[in-house]
């Protein structure tokens, strides 16, 4: 099996899963988009679910790899929050199709594959919990409901794929800083200019 060809198929499948959904995409759709016959596709993959798993795992691994070093940085929890959210946005921008599939289609996986992806999602959430706990311990985040703070961060981060454009007016760092300023200071804070 040629890894390069399988990677190409996975990228095409991710785009189709993003556009049509996993269940709405057929093997024929994938093979036609790849320019090969359906039967020939099985020389590179076992099942359509294997493609979904490969894409979801790639998304999970990208998010984990981006945040793990941030947790270990010798900086304030607030800086970790800013850097971590920036990294999250960058992962989405660089892997838009895979990130979308990771957020929306992963639950179509069978139980064993689903559990593996869930474990990686749980590890990612645990990193955010660690950053928030550090902020509470240091006194940076006062009176913080850590559960809802984590939900807020993940909700903000995970919805970005709907509207974030890597080549848009605001880069990942700018957007992350604006969000973190709102999280830290609240809506009553008179901050900088709003994002247009």
UniProtKB/TrEMBL annotation:
UniProt cross-references to Gene3D superfamilies, sorted A to Z: Tetracycline Repressor, domain 2
Superkingdom: Bacteria
Residue ranges of domain HTH tetR-type in the record: 3-63
Keyword Metal-binding applies: no
Residues of the DNA-binding region: 26-45
InterPro entries: Homeodomain-like_sf, HTH-type_TetR-like_transc_reg, HTH_TetR, KstR2_TetR_C, Tet_transcr_reg_TetR-rel_C_sf
GO function terms (MF aspect): DNA-binding transcription factor activity; transcription cis-regulatory region binding
Keywords attached to this entry: DNA-binding, Repressor, Transcription, Transcription regulation
SUPFAM superfamilies found in the cross-reference section: Homeodomain-like, Tetracyclin repressor-like, C-terminal domain
Cited PROSITE patterns: HTH_TETR_2
Pfam families to which the protein is assigned, alphabetical: TetR_C_24, TetR_N
UniProt protein name: TetR/AcrR family transcriptional regulator
Organism name: Polycladospora coralii
Organismal lineage: Bacteria, Bacillati, Bacillota, Bacilli, Bacillales
